[in-house]
Every structure is written in C-alpha cells, then in structure tokens.
Amino acid sequence: MRNLDExxxxxxxxxxxxxxxxxxxxxxxxxxxxPAVSSRMEKLEREGYIKGYHAALDMEKxxxxxxxxxxxxxxxxxxxxxxxxxxxxxxxxxCDHITGPYSMIMKVVFPSTTLLDEFLGKLxxxxxxxxxxxxxxxxERR
Length: 142
Description:
This protein has about 140 residues and is an alpha+beta fold. The protein has two domains: about 5-45, Arc Repressor Mutant, subunit A, CATH 1.10.10; about 65-135, 2-Layer Sandwich (Alpha-Beta Plaits). About 35% of the residues lie in helices and about 20% in strands. It has helices spanning about 5-15, 25-30, 35-45, 80-85, 115-125; strands spanning about 65-70, 90-95, 105-110, 130-135. The protein has a four-stranded antiparallel sheet, covered by helices on one side. A hairpin with a 6-residue loop joins strand 2 (about 90-95) and strand 3 (about 105-110). The longest helix is centred in the N-terminal third of the chain and has 13 residues, at about 35-45.
C-alpha cells in the first residue's frame, strides 16, 4: 500500500460524507480535472482504500425499529459452523471477532422484540450470549 497524499484524503473524506458526490464537485474541491479525479478514485478502489459505495438506510423507517448488540462466546471448534450460520442471517448488520470475555459482537436489527428473542434462542446453541438493546443513536456511522 502506498501513502495517501492530501488530495486522496480530501477525496476520501468527501466520498465518506456523500458517496454520490459528482466528479465535477470533487474535481473543483481538489483542483484537478474530472479525469484525474476519476483515475485517482479507480486507483483507490484497486488498492482497497475504497471498498464500495453504500446508501445509508433508515432502518427504523424500513420497519426495523429494534437495534441491539449481541455478544456471544463461541468455542473455537464451533467457529466454522457459527460463521456459516451468521453469514446467512439478514438481521445481522455486522459481526466482529473481539477480545475479552466474549468472542463475537454483532449489531442486529429486528421489527420486534419477539423476533429478537427468537434469534437469541437460535444463537444460544453456539454459546453464552449477552444482549444490549439500543435506545437511541448519538453518533451515526462515520
């Protein structure tokens, strides 16, 4: 990986705020031609600095008003089976392997607490869980 210069960082910050920022606007901000900015973006994508372009969805408006973080202890011998299971669960927005008393943390969304409870029942096959339900969001994903 190469070091990013000031222009790359500016482009990345603008795209982070709005992935749909037009090339013309990016070009004007960094004082380069549109083809030059496009070329830099392609290079940033190839090098893995840009993994994709995503829409920020309002999960509550989409009917998923329950957001929670679930921590679970998965034994190493059950990891493969757990990974296969969790990758298929559409309610799981993120799942990370962590340090501490739990081995995994998941960010999940559900339309109801009943469905969250059902999901927890399926998870407990893999190990001990602890769940934190979110009341409100203070900082959006950056």
